[in-house]
Amino acid sequence: MSVAPPAKRAACRDQPDSARHTVTPFGTRFLRLQSLRTPFLDVRIRRAFCLALARERLVARVLAGFGLPAHSLTMPGTGGF
Fold first, then answer.
1. How far is CA 8 from CA 1, 3, 31, 64, in A?
2. Which of 32, 52, 67, 80 could form a disulfide with 63 if both were Cys (CB 3.0 to 4.6 A apart)?
3. CB neighbours of residue 4 within 10 Å
4. CB proximity list for 30: less than 8 A, separation 6 or greater
5. Domain residue spans in the chain?
6. Angle at 23 between CA 56 and CA 15, to 5 degrees
7. Dihedral sign for Cα atoms in the order 12, 17, 22, 26
8. What is the pTM of this model?
9. How confident is the model at residue 21, as a pLDDT?
């Protein structure tokens, strides 16, 4: 997550690490499916949708590369909290 406005994110990313201050936020953004409607009533469809989701591409395009693809609701290194 970034506090830089979308128009300035590319310029911020091009700065050397010593010229910017970055902080890893504790938070997860997620998509929620309406699982009480077809076709998501079938667990196989839900699982296939989850496996087909391009997390890396979502982070690159939606968050402009500011973030990490999540595979769980808790961040790595937090002990599951």
1. 14, 10, 26, 11
2. 67
3. 14
4. 70, 73
5. 6-62
6. 75
7. positive
8. 0.52
9. 67
pLDDT tens track for 23-58: 666 777 787 888 888 899 999 999 999 899 898 998
Q: What is the 3-state secondary structure (H, E, C) of the chain?
A: CCCCCHHHHHHHHHCCHHHCCCCCCCCCCCCCCCCCCCCCCCHHHHHHHHHHCCHHHHHHHHCCCCCCCCCCCCCCCCCCC
Residue showing tokens 């690159």: 60
Question: What pLDDT was estimated at residue 45?
Answer: 93
